[in-house]
Design a protein that fits this description.
alpha+beta, four-stranded mixed beta sheet, four-stranded antiparallel beta sheet
Length: about 90
C-alpha cells in the first residue's frame, strides 16, 4: 500500500510540473490587445482584455507579441505585464 501511495504521488507531481512552469500575461492597461504567442510548436493568436490576467498562457520558452506595443521573450515562471502601453517582465 505504501508503495502504491508513493507511485500515485509521483504521478501527480510529474503531471503538475509543466503547469508550474507557465508564463502569465497581465494587462494593467484600460484597453484590450491582440496577442500572438510564438513558441517552438507554432504561433497562436489570441487577445487579452483590459485589466485582466491570463494565467499559464503557454509553457516553455517563447515570445509574446502585443499588437501596437512590442515583443518580449519569456519562459519558465515569467509574468509578462502590459502597462502604460509598454511590455515588461516582473
Amino acid at each position: 500500500m505504501n508503495r502504491l501511495l508513493r507511485l500515485v504521488l509521483a504521478i501527480v507531481l510529474l503531471a503538475a510540473a509543466p503547469m508550474a512552469l507557465a508564463v502569465d500575461l497581465q494587462n494593467e492597461d484600460n484597453k484590450a490587445y491582440a496577442v500572438k504567442i510564438h513558441t517552438s510548436s507554432g504561433t497562436t493568436t489570441t487577445s487579452i482584455e483590459a485589466g485582466t490576467t491570463v494565467s499559464g498562457i503557454y509553457s516553455g520558452d517563447g515570445e509574446i507579441e502585443i499588437e501596437g506595443v512590442g515583443t518580449i521573450k519569456a519562459g519558465g515562471n515569467d509574468v509578462v505585464v502590459i502597462k502604460n502601453g509598454k511590455i515588461t517582465k516582473k
